[in-house]
Design a protein that fits this description.
By secondary structure, the chain is mainly alpha-helical. It contains 4 helices and no strands. It has helices at 19-45, 52-57, 67-94, 104-120.
Length: 123
């Protein structure tokens, strides 16, 4: 009648993700939204396309990156890196069980943002 407690299977008391895990998901969403806004800014800041029709009609185009928009773009990319790095570091401290998941989308976001920043900081 008195069986040892270890012979009984452990009851899973988790009811779902807690607020910390949900915050990791929201940090990832915020980071991707920042990256999408940065992509829109990069479209507006990049030099205009010099096609044959533009040259034929003699239309003046901008052949340089817009300085004010480029500065904002770089700040957004740094924020994207910080948000994803913050999410990755906190997730590493939070992972304790074998069933906990690694946030691979935050790693991908960090790599994409760093690649975009390397374009602007190339020597």
């Amino acid at each position: 009648m008195n069986e040892p407690l270890r012979s009984q299977p452990r009851k899973n008391r988790r009811k779902g993700p807690d607020w910390v895990v949900l915050s990791f998901h929201w940090l990832s969403v915020i980071g991707w939204v920042i990256l999408i806004v940065a992509l829109g800014l990069s479209h507006m800041a990049k030099p205009e396309m010099n096609s044959g029709l533009v040259r034929y009609w003699g239309i003046q185009i901008r052949d340089y990156w817009e300085p004010t928009l480029t500065g904002q773009l770089i700040y957004l990319l740094w924020w994207c890196c910080l948000v994803s790095l913050f999410s990755i570091v906190l997730n590493q401290f939070r992972l304790r069980r074998a069933t906990d998941r690694q946030q691979y989308n935050s790693v991908a976001l960090l790599l994409i943002a760093m690649a975009a920043l390397s374009f602007f900081y190339q020597i």
